[in-house]
């Protein structure tokens, strides 16, 4: 082989350029710049982050100004979801207590367990953490920065659970100036509300909270097998199980949002491949539970999309910024109704959708990544923009969607600058999506006779004006 070293093959280049080339080559060859943060791969347990997926700029396109916006937010960080706690975390913590005799201090990568105490008690489950309250308040401040010309909301809507209600209150505290004037309207999490609540999946009998568990457990067993084998070689007495490993990895997320950091996130304990296995396991579960692998997702998500589109398209809105809080289930169902993060997008057919999430190996190039969709405080925004002097496009009204601040291209609606879509295009898009996914009650097989397919909370005056928040109105049970 003839030598093709830079000094011989690039002799004819000016010396300056040669230096730059050689320099940048050696930089990429000599140093690994691989970075991995497990907190960005923890699905529903991921602390809030903005994955820039896709990396389009969150700024509005040149010449465009937001004139109205609507946000659907998952509640902020909590101590632990009751299912996660009971299924994975509590059994691991009890097992630790039953193995008090084990001297962890001598065991590599697990030695921290000798001084570790559980960050969660049974009583704290489901409550918002301090980090959660701060992050929700921060989102309030972010909205005021993002929309300096819009009127602040006079009302914020939330489903009635404590963690969603407190998230709404915290956001209001971050949004309000001194006055105590933004009201929080609580929408009861009824099982008979039809589509008219912020938790419509609860009134949908065809939705099952357990959907996806069977498929999830297939990949859970696969990715944890080598990990349990490795940990059991270190501490055979403990007999680590798949569920222990899954719970320990969840603790990385929960302990981080409770204490600010967690030894379970250490990459010497669980490698990047281990975390990617955890993330894929969660993505399989969400795919079948609230994603494209569930027959009802789009039907449950559509009423929010349709109601929101009406609020944004209308002439005069009561609010410039509509903000609502819900649980992790609703935003992904709205995302299905909208056709975003579709693994089959740009080809592939509907029938192949489950094939895009194989149970025996990771689809690394999937669009459906729960960490990017529903971290704590995950948020979905639809914006109405006014654009003028945008080269190459007519002046007028355009619409844009952001997920955790990343602009999302809409399927079949891309006739505006950047990821935006014209008013006509957006109206047609909403009609098309409504045609596909209308019929909540029928699809859900509702078993009560007063159901409705329409979400009307934003315009229903009978719901009243809600409750003021107050800067320091923190109930005692909430002070830790
Ligand atoms: C149906 O009736 C139940 C019980 O009165 C009520 O809680 C629920 O909100 C009603 N549903 C609708 C869609 O009005
Ligand atoms: C380890 O745990 C598994 C699952 O709980 C159980 O089936 C097995 O018998 C245990 N092995 C030992 C050696 O205790
Ligand atoms: C996902 O994309 C495929 C291929 O474009 C399309 O056939 C399917 O309808 C999409 N699914 C939804 C729910 O939009
Ligand atoms: C995907 O799998 C789920 C669960 O088995 C099933 O209900 C659904 O119909 C499947 N989707 C398609 C498009 O085959
Ligand atoms: C969608 O909104 C339109 C306009 O308000 C309304 O007439 C229709 O009933 C809504 N459909 C659904 C399924 O929400
Ligand atoms: C809600 O506020 C509006 C405007 O301040 C007021 O006119 C209305 O009476 C209030 N409604 C209730 C139910 O308090």
UniProtKB/TrEMBL annotation:
**Where does the signal peptide begin and end?**
1-27
User: What molecular function does GO assign, one term?
Assistant: acid phosphatase activity
| Disulphide-bridged cysteine pairs | 64-387, 252-265, 413-421
Tell me what this protein is called: Acid phosphatase
Q: Which domain of life is it from?
A: Eukaryota
GO cellular component, alphabetical, reads:
fungal-type cell wall
Keyword Transcription attached: no
* Keywords of this entry: Disulfide bond, Glycoprotein, Hydrolase, Signal
Would the keyword Lipoprotein be found if you checked this record's keyword annotation? no
């Amino acid at each position: 082989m003839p030598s093709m070293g830079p000094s011989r093959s690039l002799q004819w280049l000016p010396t300056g350029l040669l230096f730059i080339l050689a320099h940048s080559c050696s930089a990429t060859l000599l140093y690994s710049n691989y970075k991995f943060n497990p907190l960005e791969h923890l699905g529903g347990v991921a602390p809030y982050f903005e994955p820039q997926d896709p990396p389009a700029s969150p700024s509005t396109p040149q010449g465009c100004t937001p004139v109205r916006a609507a946000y659907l937010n998952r509640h902020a960080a909590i101590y632990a979801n009751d299912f996660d706690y009971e299924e994975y975390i509590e059994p691991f913590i009890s097992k630790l207590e039953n193995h008090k005799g084990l001297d962890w201090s001598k065991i590599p990568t697990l030695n921290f367990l000798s001084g570790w105490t559980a960050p969660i008690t049974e009583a704290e489950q489901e409550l918002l953490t301090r980090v959660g309250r701060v992050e929700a308040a921060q989102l309030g401040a972010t909205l005021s920065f993002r929309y300096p010309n819009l009127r602040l909301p006079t009302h914020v809507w939330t489903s009635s659970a404590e963690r969603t209600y407190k998230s709404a209150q915290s956001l209001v505290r971050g949004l309000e100036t001194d006055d105590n004037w933004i009201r929080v309207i609580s929408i009861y999490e009824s099982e008979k509300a039809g589509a008219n609540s912020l938790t419509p999946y609860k009134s949908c009998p065809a939705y099952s909270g357990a959907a996806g568990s069977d498929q999830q457990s297939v990949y859970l067993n696969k990715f944890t097998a080598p990990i349990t084998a490795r940990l059991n070689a270190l501490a055979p007495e403990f007999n680590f199980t798949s569920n222990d490993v899954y719970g320990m990895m969840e603790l990385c997320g929960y302990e981080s949002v409770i204490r600010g950091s967690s030894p379970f996130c250490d990459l010497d304990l669980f490698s990047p491949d281990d975390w990617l296995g955890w993330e894929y396991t969660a993505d399989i579960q969400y795919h079948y539970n609230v994603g494209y692998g569930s027959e009802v997702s789009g039907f449950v998500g559509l009423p929010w999309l349709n109601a929101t589109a009406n609020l944004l398209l209308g002439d005069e809105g009561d609010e410039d910024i509509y903000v609502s809080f819900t649980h992790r289930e609703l935003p992904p169902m709205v995302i299905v109704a909208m056709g975003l993060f579709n693994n089959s997008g740009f080809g592939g057919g509907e029938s192949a959708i489950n094939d895009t999430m194989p149970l025996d190996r990771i689809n690394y190039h999937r669009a459906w990544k729960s960490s990017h969709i529903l971290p704590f405080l995950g948020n979905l925004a639809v914006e109405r923009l006014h654009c003028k002097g945008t080269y190459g496009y007519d002046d007028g009204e355009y619409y844009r969607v952001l997920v955790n601040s990343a602009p999302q291209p809409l399927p079949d609606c891309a006739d505006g600058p950047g990821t935006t879509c014209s008013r006509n295009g957006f109206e047609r898009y909403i009609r098309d999506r409504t045609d596909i996914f209308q019929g909540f009650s029928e699809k859900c097989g509702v078993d009560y006779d007063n159901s409705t397919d329409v979400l009307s909370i934003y315009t229903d005056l009978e719901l009243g004006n809600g409750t003021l928040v107050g800067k320091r109105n923190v109930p005692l049970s909430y002070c830790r």
